[in-house]
Amino acid sequence: MCGIAGIIDFAGRPVLQEELQRMTDAIAHRGPDGEGFFVDGAVGFGHRRLSIIDLSNAAAQPMTRFGLTITYNGEIYNYIELRQALEKQGIAFTTQSDTEVILAAYHYWGKDCVQRFNGMWAFAIYDASNREVVLSRDRFGEKPLYYTQHRGRFLFASSLRALLPITGARLANTTVVMNYLLHEKAEPLQQSFFKGYHKLDAGHFLIINIRSAAAAMPVRYYQLPQSQHSACSLSNASEELSFLMQDAIAIRMRSDVAVGGTLSGGIDSSYVAAEASAVARAKQLPAFASFTAGTMESATNELPYAKQMADHCKLRLFTTVPTEEDYMTALLPVVLAQEEPIQSLSVVMQYAVMQLAHQSGLKVLLDGQGADELFLGYPVHLGVAMRQLSWPKAIGLAMQSKTKYGLSASLLAQLALYHAHPLRKAKRQQGRWSAVMPNQVLQQATIEQIAAMDVAVQQSVQSYQVYDMVAGNLPALLRHEDRNAMAFSIETRLPYLDYRLVEWALQLPLQAKINEGWSKYILRFTMQEKVPAAIAWRKGKIGFEPPALQERIIRKLLAPESLQQRGLRLLPNAPIHQLSTPMRWRLLSLQLWAETFDVTFE
């Protein structure tokens, strides 16, 4: 895990290392173990290193081999197998790093080499002979990559903070802001919250031709599967899931430094911890270290489950219970780390977990992100499933799920009639916001993504899952995960996003995911022999989000006049207090972001 940056000057002017230094200084937290630069006339790369695999100086970046130069952030977990395949083709290696494997793979297989990678990455490769730079981002967007064009130059980096000082622009992207407020879109496709700054979407290439002084449009190289298996044996599916999880975790524990994990006490992280602790024992490593946070609110405190899991698997458990003062103190550092508005206060709690892991000295953590999207773990998935069924079956599913999801009858009705109808929900949200914002401002929000989600929901549960992973909830969660971890120079690895597991899980039939009212049924069934039954068959879903505390912080900090002074248009005497807690949180998050980065609204 590292931080990358680069400049390509289309006018042919030499890139100055001093400018690259300014960019890498802004991302020093992503790589405190070293820095490096490469300049070839109008092309310049910078790199900050977090040493995980091959800790020697020989693996430093930018790295040049085969006439190719790379600056790279991430890990290719199957680099050992790729290296062996390339050695059989006569390619010799001089390091033990996965970075050199990427260069060799690109040299031998070309741009399609990424189809062979099992990992997470954002990289730029400069091909001196063809005079082109190729940017690539991993299949699901675990690693960030932003870019912009300014005064005849193309600039890219792992972080917006590396780009902002070079260009100086601090205008809000109005469409993105309104989609965030109205439609809860915290991670837009292609764009960012800053006007003129773009992100390379997950599963895409971007090719910059230096001779023609132009950057082509991003090209998608990876698509999630749309087909679905009609039936499967529960025992066979469980056996396959067990194999895929064990291998995904085993290759994600390849490291020259210690590996630990987060542990919420929920089923996703508990399954990861159980398998990881088994790998640690097999390798005769120290007891697997896990990190968790509790809350001061008993209804949302999962520490008892985490402690039960730690005792069961003999984990070393590190805990923290942030106070209200801790949350208030951490809020602005979180906003700075995230660089764009955040979804909820749970992001601050995740930040506290990463801080705890950093204090223990760990550099690498496994995390359970992605399981809810794959195995239908959110209550909204129940509404989507009910929309696919006949009314008698939908009512039966609702009755089964009522206690197992911990949902009231009224919320179940909302899930089926409101949350599972994105366009209907969007119009209802716009109606609520119309009490505080002028209609001409509200109309700057776009409906295309919401319409696409509505079509996906109507087609199948699987099509909704694909949408959610590409353009819905998952991209925002991955941004929060990466920025919080890298704020403390920690690399997080996500076994549930092993592409083999993702493709297999998406094709499972609905009854393997929601069965007898249980969410994530196949996951629970498979892990029940490895974790306490009280965890495998937990009812309801909590998550890192203390709602009462979030409301108190909103009341203390929300200052609509700050947003108005920066150009956001609100109606006179707008009854903002009448908005729901999540809606006012989004206003507060937008306010703190604008104040932190000195942003102006158009």
From TrEMBL:
<dbReference type="InterPro" id="IPR051786">
    <property type="entry name" value="ASN_synthetase/amidase"/>
</dbReference>
<dbReference type="InterPro" id="IPR001962">
    <property type="entry name" value="Asn_synthase"/>
</dbReference>
<dbReference type="InterPro" id="IPR033738">
    <property type="entry name" value="AsnB_N"/>
</dbReference>
<keyword id="KW-0067">ATP-binding</keyword>
<dbReference type="Pfam" id="PF13537">
    <property type="entry name" value="GATase_7"/>
</dbReference>
<keyword id="KW-0061">Asparagine biosynthesis</keyword>
<dbReference type="Pfam" id="PF00733">
    <property type="entry name" value="Asn_synthase"/>
</dbReference>
<dbReference type="InterPro" id="IPR017932">
    <property type="entry name" value="GATase_2_dom"/>
</dbReference>
<dbReference type="InterPro" id="IPR014729">
    <property type="entry name" value="Rossmann-like_a/b/a_fold"/>
</dbReference>
<feature type="binding site">
    <location>
        <position position="98"/>
    </location>
    <ligand>
        <name>L-glutamine</name>
    </ligand>
</feature>
<keyword id="KW-0028">Amino-acid biosynthesis</keyword>
<dbReference type="InterPro" id="IPR006426">
    <property type="entry name" value="Asn_synth_AEB"/>
</dbReference>
<feature type="active site" description="For GATase activity">
    <location>
        <position position="2"/>
    </location>
</feature>
<comment type="pathway">
    <text>Amino-acid biosynthesis; L-asparagine biosynthesis; L-asparagine from L-aspartate (L-Gln route): step 1/1.</text>
</comment>
<protein>
    <recommendedName>
        <fullName>asparagine synthase (glutamine-hydrolyzing)</fullName>
        <ecNumber>6.3.5.4</ecNumber>
    </recommendedName>
</protein>
<dbReference type="GO" id="GO:0005524">
    <property type="term" value="F:ATP binding"/>
</dbReference>
<keyword id="KW-0315">Glutamine amidotransferase</keyword>
<dbReference type="GO" id="GO:0005829">
    <property type="term" value="C:cytosol"/>
</dbReference>
<keyword id="KW-0436">Ligase</keyword>
<feature type="domain" description="Glutamine amidotransferase type-2">
    <location>
        <begin position="2"/>
        <end position="211"/>
    </location>
</feature>
<keyword id="KW-0547">Nucleotide-binding</keyword>
<dbReference type="InterPro" id="IPR029055">
    <property type="entry name" value="Ntn_hydrolases_N"/>
</dbReference>
<dbReference type="GO" id="GO:0004066">
    <property type="term" value="F:asparagine synthase (glutamine-hydrolyzing) activity"/>
</dbReference>
<comment type="similarity">
    <text>Belongs to the asparagine synthetase family.</text>
</comment>
<dbReference type="GO" id="GO:0006529">
    <property type="term" value="P:asparagine biosynthetic process"/>
</dbReference>
